[in-house]
Amino acid sequence: MSEFSGRDAVDQIVAEWATVRGDLDFSPLEVFSRIKRISRQLDAVRRTAFSAAQLELWEFDVLSALRRAGHPHALTPKQLMQTNLVSSGTMTNRIDRLEQRGLVRRSDDPADGRSVLVHMTGDGIARVDEAIKHLLRAEQSLLEPLSPAEREVFADTLRTLAVRIAPNDS
User: Fold this and answer.
1) Are the C-beta atoms of residues 17 and 26 closer than 8 Å to each other?
2) What is the average pLDDT score of the chain?
3) Which bin fits 85, alpha (ψ -120 to 50), beta or left (φ > 0)?
4) Residue 107: phi, psi to the nearest 5?
5) Cβ-based neighbours of 3, under 8 Å, separated by 6 or more
6) Which of 62, 67, 66 lies closest to 93, judged by CA?
7) pLDDT exceeds cutoff 70 at 15
8) Strands of the sheet with 74-75, listed across from one edge
């Protein structure tokens, strides 16, 4: 890894625990407490990146699923629900709100007369494209201290951990 040898708040927490409970292995805290702290910091970075495109975090999540689906940028509410890991009621509410903002529209699903498709509008595409540019720029700057090889090892390690913790989420 890199030459950085600074200490952070997690080092202090682990040292304090080791002082009072030296019989325990605190190495999991060194990993998961940092992941938790980084997650909170990334939420703030993402909120800032998405606000530049006038989107909320949840709006980006729904719109990015539609954008990644490719032309015609349409999915069923059920597909969006599965991609976004939210309940049916939550997804309906999100689609309603996005539709009110003119970022998506509903239409009958020609493949299933009982279902609808959620289509991203031109404004939705423009907003999500702007948001992803801001996000990638911000996240790229956060990764600058790592070499490309370190980034690859880091991503592989996180993938291994993610699949191990939540195998059905990958």
Assistant:
1) yes
2) 92
3) left
4) -150, 160
5) none
6) 62
7) yes
8) 74-75, 112-120, 104-109
The CATH classification number of 57-126 equals: 1.10.10.10
Joined together, the tokens standing for residue 152 give 């690859």
Find the DSSP H helices in the chain.
Answer: 9-20, 27-51, 57-68, 77-84, 88-100, 122-143, 148-165
Query: Which residue do the tokens 């999540």 mark?
Result: 61
- DSSP assignment letter at 168: G
Structure tokens at 1: 């890894």
Q: Would you state the pLDDT for residue 115?
A: 86
Q: How many Cβ atoms sit within 10 Å of the Cβ of residue 141?
A: 10
Is residue 1's pLDDT more than 60?
no
Write down the residue that tokens 């689609």 correspond to: 95
Per-residue pLDDT band for 133 (boundaries 50, 70, 90) equals very high
Strand partners for 74: 119
CA–CA distance, 61 with 55 (Å, rounded to integer): 10
- Find the radius of gyration of the CA atoms of the chain: 20
pTM of the entire predicted model: 0.82
The pair of three-digit structure tokens given for residue 93, joined into one six-digit string? 């509410």
Q: How far apart are CA 118 and CA 112, in angstroms?
A: 13
